[in-house]
Amino acid sequence: MIALARRSTPLLTAAALATMLLAASASAASSHRHSHRHASAHAAIVGGSPIPISQVPWQVSVQASIPEGLMRLRLRCGGAILDDFHILTAAHCTFDPKTDQRIPPEDFLVRAGTADLTSSEPGEQTREVTTVRAHPYYVYASTDTHLSTDDVAVLTLAEPLSFSGVVSPIGLATVGSLPPEGATTALAGFGEQTPGTEADGHLYGLQMGLISPRECGGENNAVVVCASSPSGSPCSGDSGSGLILSGNPLTLIGVMDSGQVIAGKRCAAGERATFANVAAGEIQDFIDGSETPPKAPRGEGVSCTVDGSEVGDTMTCLPGTWSEEPIFTFTFMGGQDGHVLQSGSSDTYRFTEADVGSTVMVQLNATNAGGTAIDRMQLTQAISAARRGLSSGAAGVRIVSTVLSVKRNAALLKLRCVGGSACRGTILLRVRSRGRGAHTVTLAKANFTIESRASRALKLTLVRGSLSLIKADGGHLTAKAVIRERSPAPGWTHVERVRLRAVAART
Fold first, then answer.
1. DSSP-assigned letters across all residues of 96-161
2. Rounded distance, CA 137 to CA 283, Å?
3. For 402, phi and psi rounded to 5 degrees?
4. How far apart are the first and last CA of the chain?
5. Residues whose CB is less than 8 angstroms from the CB of residue 323 and which lie 6 or more positions away in sequence, other chains included
6. How far apart are the C-alpha atoms of 356 and 70, rounded to whole Å?
7. Core vs surface per residue 43-52: b (16+ CB within 10 A) or e
């Protein structure tokens, strides 16, 4: 399983990788030596290009020799240098795929400072391993096509590495950082260049672009990073390799875990590759030494309702179901470029003139010490300009009185039908609850039919407890009257504000 990595990495030309990793040696050499802060390697890269170890001096080959009958089988993975004594790799690389048992530390060997495993290069350093720490939440199963989350492990070397131009550490991404989708990353590894064919032992690199972690992480997206390349993919033997984010300095953001199977083929160009997200507290706290790291949120199901799709209408969202008690941030985005319209704790957005002609999407961030998970929902109907009242003679319903007297959870709402045909539809009274976890509450719902140019008093029966809610707000409560018409303007939804006033009932 280990050297039989599940991905192929998109081909990255040596020149392109050199451009991305130009400052690698300098930044890596000056990185803070932290026993748990740097990245890894994975199965061979499909579609990649050969690169020298000087461009990725943190890259190592993690090898294990395990018994198979009268012989021993050598398994290979990638890894990244955290400091002179520690290597970061994938947790599944530390298990025997034949027995599902942990491989003893003494069966491991780490080779650093080389881009050619078929020979011994100047500057190469080989080290034995004394201890192996796998993430406490990781669950290994060789027959599972979807590897467990938290697929990271830290190896402690028997002797320290001597840093040089071909052997140096790489810094980990800052905890809580969220690189944008589309950001440029690079992966290096000794994995297969052709799926099912033994790797040639040389180091290859591939440029990849980040995609939404929801694409490969599902409800576990807080602890994964997803990337893909149109020209290649990681493959067997690249597991454990580190995904590097371009920048100054370069940083490790992911540890190679698994790859997508496309039309029955593994290591296919364009596949979604999954990496353990080292910027998640659930993972980086483990790398830093914790055996009880905080768990990131798991969940999904953000849902939104709209009063209508015109300027002045609102979009109100609920977060769905989540574990680990996260804090929620709602980011409303619009237009084809997804520019931010509003971001914060408020779950409601009011459409403006600037939104006309575009759709609006909400991204929910669920955050705690273990990481940040995301979920999204798109409003599919484009926002239209507001209809400015009905005084011009346009058909529709208007509210005659905007102050309603509420007795025993009942109120009369006076409506008038304007236009040459009867008005039919539904009206809802809605208010916004207060305090933490605030959401929209529907107090009443009623259908109406009003003859053309006629008025009608519509009785609204409010839900139980409405009168107490009004009294608790000082005897007056502002509500939205959401009017959804079936005729004469089918599908037209507009909102007017009304004032609910508690009135004592006579005995």
1. -TTT-PBPPGGGEEEEES-SBTTSPPTT-EEEEEEEEEE-TT----TT-SSPPS---EEEEESS--
2. 10
3. -105, 5
4. 80
5. 295, 297, 298, 299
6. 73
7. bbbbbbbebb
Q: Determine the pLDDT at residue 505.
A: 63
pLDDT at 280: 98
Distances (CA, A) of 12 to 28, 76, 450: 21, 22, 69
Q: Give backbone dihedrals phi and psi of 421, rounded to 5 degrees, phi first.
A: -140, 165
Domains 301-379 and 396-502 share a fold: yes
DSSP 3-state assignment of 419? coil
Distance CA 28, CA 25 (A): 5
Q: What is the dihedral of CA 171, 175, 177, 183, to 10 degrees?
A: 30
Beta-bridge partners for 75: 64
CA torsion angle 344 345 348 354 (round to 10) = -10
The model carries a pTM of: 0.70
Token readout for 207 is: 């440029």
pLDDT for position 473: 77
Kindly give the parts of the chain with pLDDT less than 70. 1-44, 70, 142-147, 262-263, 380, 386-395, 419, 434-438, 505-507
Provide the residue ranges of all domains of the chain, joining segments of one domain with +: 14-285, 301-379, 396-502
* Residue 371 burial (10 A CB sphere; 0-12, 13-18, 19+): buried
pLDDT of residue 26: 32
What local confidence, expressed as pLDDT, does residue 37 receive?
A: 29
The owner of tokens 């009274």 is 429
Classify domain 14-285 at the CATH topology level: Thrombin, subunit H (2.40.10)
Could you check whether the bond before residue 160 is cis, i.e. omega within 30 degrees of 0? no
What is residue 251's predicted lDDT score, i.e. its pLDDT? 96
Hey, what are 493's tokens?
A: 């939804």
Give the CATH architecture of domain 396-502: Sandwich (2.60)
**Contact present, 485 and 423 (Cβ < 8 Å):** yes
Instruction: Say which amino acid occupies 496.
Output: E
| Contact (CB, 8 A) for 2 and 97 | yes
Is the separation of the CB atoms in 129 and 158 below 8 Å?
Answer: yes
| C-beta neighbour count of 281 within 10 angstroms | 24
CA torsion, points 224, 230, 231, 235, in degrees to nearest 10? 30
Q: CA angle, 181 as apex, 255 and 348 as ends, to 5°? A: 120
Looking at CATH, the fold of the domain delimited by 301-379 is given as Immunoglobulin-like (2.60.40)
Cross-strand partners of 344: 330
Q: How many angstroms separate the Cα of 182 from the Cα of each of 262, 278, 326, 350?
A: 21, 18, 26, 29
Q: Are 432 and 438 in contact (CB under 8 A)?
A: yes
* Alpha-carbon distance values, 113 to 107, 162, 239, 363, 449 (Å): 20, 10, 18, 43, 81
